[in-house]
Amino acid sequence: MLSPLSRALCCALSFAVVPAAAAQSAAGGLFDHQLRRLHADEVVDLAVRYAGHPVLIVNTASHCGYTGQFGELEAVYREYRERGLKVAGFPSDDFRQEARDEAETAQVCFVNFGVTFDMYAPVAVRGDAAHPLFRELARQSEAPRWNFHKYVVDRNGRVVAAFPSRVKPDAPAVRAAIEAVLGGAPAR
Q: How many CA atoms within 13 Å lie on the side-chain side of 14?
């Protein structure tokens, strides 16, 4: 008989199948980029920022029916951050729902939803124009089909689960995948 955590993890992993070959070369390329923080001049070396940390990566948009997930992402971040989880948001206008002005995007994230996790300047997330980070995520898993597609990445830069927009960041399947990359014990 499976424990509730095992059942949730099985469910989580059913959302994304990560080919073994993709997982083997993940650590070398996923975070080998520098990106500017949202509405700021600071440039972040992602390899330094996320080295050795599990990360929940999300492509976001300010004017989407799923924009309310910022609140749930923040809650998940606050719950798991002391155990090492990082959350990284990447605004994108690939689905024509991002603000044209970065200041407005920052307002939605930081003021409207109180986001304290990492948010970066807008990037393309699909197709030929996709930022290399999202090309690697797609290679390991799948490209986002819409805003608020979520990727759980382990400490070695491998995608272990991916979730479509409709799956909330605090859903049991997402939590199970996060618990798995954190090492199992539930957050308090």
A: 9
Please compute the mean of the pLDDT values over residues 103-127 and round it to a whole number: 97
Instruction: Evaluate whether 95 touches 126 at the Cβ level (below 8 Å).
Output: no
Q: Coil, strand or helix: which one is 120?
A: strand
Number of domains the chain contains: 1
**Which is higher by pLDDT, 18 or 156?**
156
Residue 187 lies in a domain: no
Query: Which two structure tokens, joined as six digits, stand for 175?
Result: 């939590």
Query: Which helix H or strand E contains 45, and what residues bound it?
Result: strand 43-45
Residue 188: inside a domain: no
Q: Is 164 left (phi over 0), alpha (psi -120 to 50) or beta?
A: beta
Backbone angles phi, psi at 43, to 5 degrees: -105, 130
**What CATH number has the domain bearing residue 44?**
3.40.30.10
3-state secondary structure of 169: coil
Active site residues: 64
How many CA atoms lie within 13 Å of 100's alpha carbon, on the beta-carbon side?
0
Cα 55 from Cα 62, distance rounded (Å): 21
124 Cβ neighbours under 8 A, 6+ residues apart: 92, 94, 130, 131, 134
User: What pLDDT is attached to residue 29?
Assistant: 84
Give the CA angle between residues 116, 121, 124 to the nearest 5°.
125
Domain that holds residue 90: 4-182
